[in-house]
Amino acid sequence: MKLAVIPARGGSKRIPRKNIKLFNGKPMIAWSIEAALQSQIFDQVIVSTDDEEIATIAKQFGAKVPFLRPATLADDYTGTAVVVQHAINWVLQNQWQQEQDPLTIVACIYATAPLLSASVLNHAMAIWQQRPRLDFIFSGCRFSFPIQRALYRDTDGAVFAVQPEAISKRSQDLPETFHDAGQFYLGTAESWLANRPVFSKSSYLYELPQYLVQDIDTIDDWQRAELLHQLLLQRAQPTERN
Prior knowledge:
The chain has helices at residues 28-39, 52-60, 80-93, 118-130, 189-193, 219-236; strands at residues 2-7, 22-23, 26-27, 44-48, 105-109, 136-142, 151-153, 159-161, 178-188, 203-208. By secondary structure, it is of the alpha/beta class. The strands form three sheets. The chain has a six-stranded mixed beta sheet, sandwiched between helices. The protein has a two-stranded antiparallel sheet with strand order 2-3. 31% of the residues are buried.
């Protein structure tokens, strides 16, 4: 059995009701649900939420919401891994596997990942099948500028190099660096339950191009992500021929 868990609590602060705010005509979470369903990878796609309205909308777009997450797992300090572990344990304890194979693969897909596509999930799963001993595959992206040449600025405006020895080096002489793209984390149920680190030598970074990656924490982020998403939708539509 392969399970997708989409965490979506109701108490987002910086953009209120972010998970269900309309994004290019649909609630934000709908895009993640549709990507998971369209990939046809998962036997079950569930949304873990503490919020009745989010639960209703998630069901409308095809996800299952078999439980409401306890409030103790829906505050500003609860990590993603704990939420996924709670969902896995619920599935195991409620015998969802009786009519299916044992639970093996669990994906966490963020509700705020509208740039994620079913094809990316399928490609990640294909890589997994070639590397079955991995703990996790997660989405990542290359930094566009060498982080070794980053700068600090103090309250007086004075500037200091983070790595002074790197300032004089050419960009091509510095190792490439990457960051978590915050879209999906594909792992074994065992790895999730054992709380193994996602960022380790037992994980594979699935690199996404920069135009498919956008954190959405501010209104400016939101607007940029919508523009990127609109371009992707236009590119996916078949062009008319004269």
